[in-house]
Amino acid sequence: MNDKQPQHLGDIKIGISACVAGENVRFDASSKPSQFALRELGQYVTYKPICPEVAIGLPVPRPTIRQINKNDVIHVSRPDGSGDVTEALSEYGKKAAKVANEFSGFIFCAKSPSCGMERVKVYSEDGKGSTSTGVGVFAAEVMNANPLLPCEENGRLNDAVIRENFVARVFAYRQWQLLEKEGITKHKLMQFHTRFKYTVMSHDLVAYKALGQLLASADIDAEDMAAQYISGLMSALKVKASRKKHTNTLQHIQGYFAKELNANEKQELCEQIEEYRKGLVPLFVPLTLIKHHLMRFPKEYLQKQFYLAPYPAELKLRYGL
Hints:
It is built from 12 helices and 8 strands. Mean pLDDT is 95; it is low at 1-5. The radius of gyration is 22 Å and the shape is elongated. The protein is 46% helix and 12% strand. It folds into 2 domains: 7-158, no CATH class; 159-321, no CATH class. It has helices at 35-40, 52-55, 86-100, 137-145, 160-182, 186-203, 205-215, 222-238, 243-254, 263-277, 284-296, 300-303; strands spanning 13-17, 46-50, 66-70, 73-77, 105-108, 120-124, 130-134, 151-153. It is an alpha/beta fold.
């Protein structure tokens, strides 16, 4: 599974709901495999499949369970209220959350009463009505204990923008985890930020300025600065990058070639960026031309930018942006 994995990032581990990994562990002994996760992303990461329902002792197959609102308290049980497993799922979630701090991401099963990240159905006690306002009990424990961890649901990964955003966050977070293992100093933190400047710019300009100001603070020690920085970075990367923001970022990068390109080359690059802005071509088109010019005119600062190569190009994630 890892033969094409970027070696400098080591073994990238991602937690995944076992049914999404293709294991037949659902209530009806079926699975809900994510083809993108298994066939494409799976070439570069190692998955840790987890089924909290099986882990707490429920059989396969088994009676269905659901979230039920009883006096404003959410319980997970069979539709008739029997077999309450709320506490068991919560306790297992807390145990798994400690293991999840070694993960670089997590893919949950959508709408599951144990694993859904959002929009989980919560039924009234009489079973006559429901709202899609719940969060899976297991997923909630994992996410609450690991607020920086990139998390996504299998169904949402079918959306090109969400899919690209999740994978980029996974690979960015992995780089941070490796930096933590080395030991963080203010100097290393500055170097790390330098590599992510254009990535942050393409997501959130307010965060771009705020992170720069944070690193310029002289009265914050390295540990506190690192904690504030990674929180700000991962929050910024959750913001979906728009064509407008990408265009602004591409134009900034374009400026690095102002002296080297001739008039025709400058016009060509301007036209490709403009065509991208108008939605006529995907992001990889102007990026490919920029990388071509970067090979002709090497610039160390740009070559280190995470923005230009956030994950393996073979995933073709920017073809749909």
